[in-house]
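Quick note —
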Amino acid sequence: MSGGRAEQWARAEGNATITQVAGDHVTNVGYGPGAGPAPQAPAGLPEAPAVLVGRDGPVEELLGVLGEGDGGGSRVAVVAGLAGVGKSALAVATAHRALELGGFGDRVFFLALRGYAPNGAVDGPGAVHEMLRHLGIRDADIPGSPDARLHLYRAELAARARAGERVLIVADDAGSVAQVRDLVPAQDAHRLLVTSRHRLVAPGFPGRIVVLDELTADAAAELLTAALLRTWPQDPRPLGDPGALAEIAEHCGRLPLALTVAGALLAGDPGLPAAELARQLSGARTRLATLHIDEDGDGAVPVGVRAAFDLSYARLPADQARLLRLLTLVPGPDCATAYAHLLTRGCLPHPADPPEALAAVRASLAALVRASMLTEQPVGSGRWRMHDLVRLYARERGEEHAEQDRRQDVTDTFLASLVFDAEVACRTLGVDGRPASGPGLPSMALALRWLDGERTMLVDAVGFAAEAGRPDITFELAGLLGPYLDLYGHASDALVVARRMVAVCRESGDRTDTAAALYNLAIALLDARRMAEATALLDESLVLFREVPERSGEARSLNLLGSVHTREHRWEEAREAHERALEIFRAEGVRHAEGTVLVNLAHVLEQSGRVDEAVDASAEAHRLLKETGDDHRAATAQGVLGDMLWRAGRREESSAAREQALATLRSLGHRAAVAWLLNAIAGSLTDDAAGDAGGNTERFRGAQARYEEALALFAEVGDRHGEGAVRANLGRLLRLAGRPQEALESQRQGCALLAATGDLRGEAVVLADMALTLCLLDRPAEAADGFERAAALHGAVGDAEQEAATRRMAAHLRAAPETAPTPEEPPRRWWGRFRNGS
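Predicted structure written out below.
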């Protein structure tokens, strides 16, 4: 033991063989001093791993690098990667595969260099000495001088090359180029295969780097299962609870060493449910302690992730170790170079800073990459990512060195910088409804690129600030991010931020802040189509706003409640809520908010058959929002105006309004909003093209092009609900165009996506439309089933009228399948997105 940390190494006497389980957990062979030569290969090669999953690609890549001699491939290959990622297992498996292929005969040699051992590492001359013994040179014939030994080693390899022999040397666990440089063969016939936690790069060293990453999810679960079944072939846990094993694999970061330890923990306690181990590993603070096992049961040979990382961490220079520790202060999966600079220097790079300032930080980050403690993903992006278990380990070390690193001061500086940057970006975009203003603002494109690029970090920072004891930062960040996340369609992130904001406000006890936070959470729940939860929160916010009292807050909640009722097709209740909100905002003189209410009211008026009033409401909304400088919501209002004008039969005015709205939304980078508007335009074109003969008219082609562009945009932003809606609508277009089989496939895809997002009403609409397509394909029994399923869903959401209508269709088909409904012109259906603003 050294400094309380386990040294995972052992020593053999004489010609004894030792077996170690540590680091990459592969059997090694070592030899003590003796008079005779060491055993010849392949006796010196450890056994092939019992299980090697998910590494077929790397094995083939290595075999290709090793090549067939005569100039093919590379003389040196270096397998580099994080401690415990399975480098040694891969190298040994590849060597055995090379033996099977016959490329090296039986001339494969193995050296255990112990490069990361606190003591006892094999140096370069020692490695050459060991190789001479492997090559059959007797101890008495080995020169005493390192230079003479190197000459003899090279002469021996040259002689074998002249004799037509090829030699493969596996040098395991090298800690530096110096350990293996002298082993590099001079002849193209021979190969050197090195494993190292470092990416071994040095002038004149010809190593081809093969970086080994963690396993895929499927391979990780397979390795964990295999490790368990090797001990207990009849163990019921893999089949009984595969979900728990998959969860364990994720907690292990899909790192082979961690998976092997987890498998040993399960094997050592046959009665331990996999779900219980998953629960134990779910705690980030205790995970590394759990991923530890004493091989002998008495602590003599401990094996674990922390012990493996200790050896890598101990090799880091002090400045790199500090950087690694401080990087754990950055929430989210990765860190930009600029924020790494902030952590280490106390400030972000300034335009006037010399380029060397940022270059020095990048050099330190790159050094951590070479040490396999960090990765740049993608290469050249300037974004740096830690493996999950490395992050936990580095955070432990950071808390140990908190005072030395000034961790609290760095945290405060970092959070203050995030708030400042977020405020500048959001002010530039004008997402809070106010026009961009202030000196030195970046371009809108740059602000949006920064928000999109750092979105995950910013969202995680809201919770990080709360955990760091800075609720003020949580509140500021949440308030800044909420409008951006809502307007740009990041619904799941908006939900995370809003929930955190509610928790902080409830803890503070401030009723006004709590009411506002409940309102914001209700917006996120509405986007997630969780109407009952949104309604409950709005009812609570209304009570609080009225108690305070806060009239504008009350009106905002009423406006949003009206939108919830609209989604539920409760038109009269929706109209009453919007009109009450409108009355309050007009009394308070809040013109911007008045405009947001009118946008929502226009939809309700249209559904009530009051199309001309809907046109007037949306036109007034557009005017008010444009006058107040809110380009985002003004464009949305203009798009709604275009919809209402189309419904009123004013086609040219509608097209002009929609095209202007599209241009504005595109300029603002609103990909999701652009997609919804394209979907609406395509729906209108589909309605008008329903009477066209065939599917090759200009209106059909125009509708299809818009649907396809909308699909591409929804795929870019990851909006599965939007994609489902568009696929469903495209299916209807294809059916009307006389392409029912393509229509059915598109509708099925759309239905599956809508079902996955929990949109029961939308799923019901598509099921009924699919039933009409099945009728056209002369499949009445399936169509009847579809109508029945649609009826059940309509009933589940309380739409009795649609439930009854679809059940009648199903009954009609079952009674008289030969008179199936003609799917010529069902009601127009497309999904829109309402924005509720302030």
